[in-house]
Structure formats: C-alpha cells, structure tokens
User: What shape does this take?
Amino acid sequence: MIDLNLIWFLLVGVLIVGYAILDGFDLGVGVLHLFTKNENEKRVNVNAIGPVWDGNEVWLLTGGGALFAAFPIVYATVFSGFYLAFMLLLTALIFRAVSFEFRKYSESAQSKKYWDLAFGLGSLVPALLFGVAIGNILRGLPVQLKDGKVISSISFLGLLNPYSLLVGVLSLVLFTMHGAVYMTMKSDGVQRERMVRWIDKTWIAFVVLYVLATILTFFEGGYLFDGLLKNPIFWLLFVLLFASIIYIPIAVKSGKFGVAFLSSSVMIAMMILLTALSLFPRLVPSNIDLANSLTIYNASSSQRTLTTMLIIALIGMPIVVAYTIFMYRVFKGKVIITKDSY
Assistant: This one.
C-alpha cells in the first residue's frame, strides 16, 4: 500500500528546498545591497534578481498551499502561533517587492536611498525569520493533544529564544553567502571581486555558526539524534553536505562560479533534508511531551484528500519546474544595464 503521508512529507520538503535555493539567493543579494555604495553596482544587484524573484516566491506559495492541503492541523497550529512573526515577514516581503519599481521611477537620490533600504531590510528580515522559525521547530513548541484537539500556547516573545535566534543568524549568513555566489555569475570586474571577498567572510562565519548550532542542538533537541547515526540515508546526506561546504571556496578560487553556485545549492538542500530526516515523522515536535507531537499521520488530511491533491501536484509541479528552467535560461548570463533596466 502506498504511504501517501510519506509522499506528501517528501513533496513539501522538495518545495521547501526549491524555495530556499531559489529565493535564498534573492534574499542574500538584498542583504548585500545594504552594503553596496556604487550606484551602478546597486542597479546590477536589482537587475540580477528583478526578472526572477517573483517566480522564485511561487515555490513559497506552493509550499504553503501543499502544507495546508496535506497537513492542515500543522498549518493551523504553526500559522496561528507564529502569527506576528508571519505578519512581519509578509510586510518585509511586500516592501521588497515594491522597492524594485519604486526605485526605478524615483527621481531623487534620497528617494532611491529609501527604496534601497526597503529592498535590503525586506530581504534581511525574512532571511532571519525563516531561521528563527526552523530553530523553534527543532527545539519543539508548546503543543498538546487532548481529545483530538490541539492546544498550543505559543507567544511571539517565546519564539525569540537564544537558540532560535542563533539559527536565525545562521540562516541570514547562509543566504548572504548564497547570494554572493550567485552574484559572481551576474557581475564582473570590481563588483565580482567584492563578491568573492564576501564569500570568503560569510563562508567562515557560516561554518562557525553551523558547528555551534549543531552542538547546541544536542541540548535543545536531543531527540533529533535518536537513531540518526544508524541510518544510511543520514550518512549519504552528511557526506554530500560536507563535500559541498568544502568545495564552495575551492570552486570560487578556481573561477568556477557556476559550480560554486551548484555546490551552494546542494549544501542548502542537504541541510534541509537532514533536518527533515531528523524530525521524521514529526512535523511539529512538542517540548511538553514528544508523544503530543504533530506528525505526518495524526495531523494529515484524509486519504482521499491526499490522493486528489497528489494528482493535482503531479500535473502542476512539472509546469512549475518547466517554467523555472525556462525563465533561468532566458535570463542567464551577466547583467547588462540598459535604459529599460531597473
């Protein structure tokens, strides 16, 4: 018998991976934009992601929709508990979205400065909050199951705990590095050299933060490591993660920027897959009692709903993937600034 719950767990994971890789470099470029002084370089930043950012965010919308359809109890619990954080996230994404057009048509340098700030902060805040959300999931949330109902007491201030903030900073540094690697493929000359220096700095910071976060996870979410070392899938993912992390600076120094971006993408994918593997079959662990955790089985839709949605997904997902590939083929290569550019 086909395990539809497992299939949907994997599908949601794939959508999250796709979003993190694609919109991850968008967010990273936005963070780098905060430290960019030269006007031409600012325009290169904006135009590097201007044609693709909205398509990248389709993966976030699709992932949210898939979570709602397959695991509605998880969707309701997380979105209600993280309500203020998600509103802040949504506000940041809105300001980032409109900053492209408003910056283009701003006539004064001061106005451009404001929209540059909106673009930068609208990228920094999501990059940080996504990590904070993951950190809270890993350490567990105060949820309980009573008589088939979910009782949660999640507060916004409770989400801002040291461990989750550390994971948030890790996420911010990761996406900034990913954005810098992407920009080595879209820029040239002095700007590319500056991106290489950013990669060197953020790579070191990422490695230090990742090791620190992993060590602290033993104390905050020790259950995540139960039986993990005996799982052959873990070792496969771990080797790919380790190899991709090590190869990023090697590829950059060799001038193989496309390969460096591929390595950065694999690294992000492996980090998310390792997180999913350690959580499985839980989706929202309970820090009150692990027995009260929301899993892919006790928080899912009916089998008929999962079957119907799977058919829709098998039709829709290839379209999304094909569109994404087509879009990146059209806009591949270095950014060329024209009068019609942002």
Q: What stands out?
A: The first helix runs from residue 4 to 33. The longest strand covers residues 143-146. The two ends are 53 Å apart (CA to CA).
